[in-house]
Amino acid sequence: MSRWFSMKKIPMENYDPIYYPQTALLERAYDFVTCSEVAEHFYDPHREFLLLDRLLKPGGFLGIMTCVLESENRFETWWYPRDPTHVCFYQGRTLEWIAAWRQWKLEFPSVNVAIFEK
C-alpha cells in the first residue's frame, strides 16, 4: 500500500510496534490513519482507540479492516478466533458503539471495513 501512496506522491508514515517502532510518529496528528488487520490484536482496545482518537486531526479519518462477526451465534464455528494472535473481536454494533463513544461518524463501505470520521 505504501508504494501506491508513494506513486501518487501522497506522504505516508508506517508504524508497527514490532516492525516499525517509530514512537515519535505517535506524537503527531494525521488526516488519515489505517489499521488493516490490526484491531483484532488489541489487548486493550479502550487504550488503543483513545490513542487512535489522539492521532486523528479534527475531521480526520480512521480506516479499520478486520473480520467482523455477523452474529454471536456463529462465534463457536467462526474461524477468526482460532488464530492465537486474535484477541479482540468486533460486530457491526461494536463498531457503532465505538463511534458513539468517541463521537465519530461511521460508514461501512465494504465487508469488514469501517471508516470513522472524527
Q: How do the strands line up in the largest sheet?
A: 1-2-6-5
Average per-residue pLDDT, rounded, comes to 92
Structural class: alpha/beta
Overall outline: globular
Within CATH, the superfamily carries the name Vaccinia Virus protein VP39
How does the major sheet shape up?
4 strands, mixed
Rg, Cα atoms, Å: 15 Å
Which blocks of ≥5 consecutive residues have pLDDT under 50? Answer: none
Instruction: Give the helix level as a range of percent.
Output: 10-25%
Count of helical stretches: 3
Given this structure, which CATH class is correct? Alpha Beta
Q: What portion of the residues fall into strands of 2 or more residues?
A: 25-35%
Number of domains: 1
- The CATH architecture classification is 3-Layer(aba) Sandwich
Based on DSSP secondary structure assignment, what is the total number of beta strands?
6
Order of helices and strands: HEHEEEHEE
Plain-language structure description:
With 118 residues, the chain is of the alpha/beta class. It has a single domain (28-117), classed as 3-Layer(aba) Sandwich (Rossmann fold), CATH 3.40.50. Helices cover 24% and strands 27% of the residues. The protein contains three helices and six strands; from the N terminus they run αβαβββαββ. The chain has helices at residues 2-7, 45-55, 92-102; strands at 30-36, 56-65, 68-69, 90-91, 105-110, 113-117. The chain has a four-stranded mixed sheet. The longest helix is centred in the middle third of the chain and has 11 residues, at 45-55. The chain is globular, with a radius of gyration of 15 Å. 12% of the residues are buried. The model has no long low-confidence stretch (mean pLDDT 92).
